[in-house]
Amino acid sequence: MTGNRFSRRATAESAGRATFRRGHVLLIAAGAAALACGTGPATAHHSFAMFDSDNPIELVGTLREFKYTNPHTFIVLDVKDDAGSVTTWSLEGGSPSALVREGWTSSIVKPGDELKIRVKPLRSGAPGGAWEIPTTSYRDGTPLPVKH
Q1: For residue 52, is it within any domain?
Q2: 46 lies in some domain
């Protein structure tokens, strides 16, 4: 009779360890699935709904700064209105790697360059928007070097 009691206890302990291991495996699998679902293309990190792509505008101004940083590049452009007042626009562009594929470098434009850019303005009306390579040129219309 004594042997049976110990056998039952050993069997119960083994079953408990197996359940514990299955629980760990399920927990690890669930964690891995959550991580896999949470990783997507780098381009999916935010929406572009803040930009009014239906009503683009053309800006002509002086480059104050070209920020060649991840995840987006920025052009900071000083735009003079008819009265002579200057408004500084912050314009979000593609990633540096996307610009490189089009032939751009971090030194393609420099402060003081006069640029003409067609932008998708911010819906809020603030001086900002999104710019794209094909819609960017020097003030006189000379295109910036671009690979095709």
Answers
A1: no
A2: no
Looking up tokens 């940083």, which residue turns up? 69
The whole-angstrom separation of Cα 125 and Cα 128 is 8
Structural domains of the chain, count: 2
Residues 106 and 63 in one domain: yes
Question: Cβ(76)–Cβ(63) under 8 Å?
Answer: yes
Q: How far apart (Å, rounded) are the C-alpha atoms in residues 125 and 61? A: 18
Q: Which residues pair with 92 in a beta bridge?
A: 74, 130
Based on the fold, state whether residues 113 and 83 are members of the same structural domain: yes
pLDDT tens across 57-70, in order?
999 999 999 999 98
pLDDT above 70 (res 130): yes
Range of the domain at 110: 57-138
Average pLDDT, rounded, for the chain:
80
Residues contacting 134, CB < 8 A, separation 6+: 146
Q: What is the pLDDT of residues 11-42, one digit of tens each?
A: 555 555 555 566 555 556 555 555 444 444 44
Is-above-0.85 flag for pTM?
no
Whole-number Å distance between alpha carbons of 53 and 101: 23
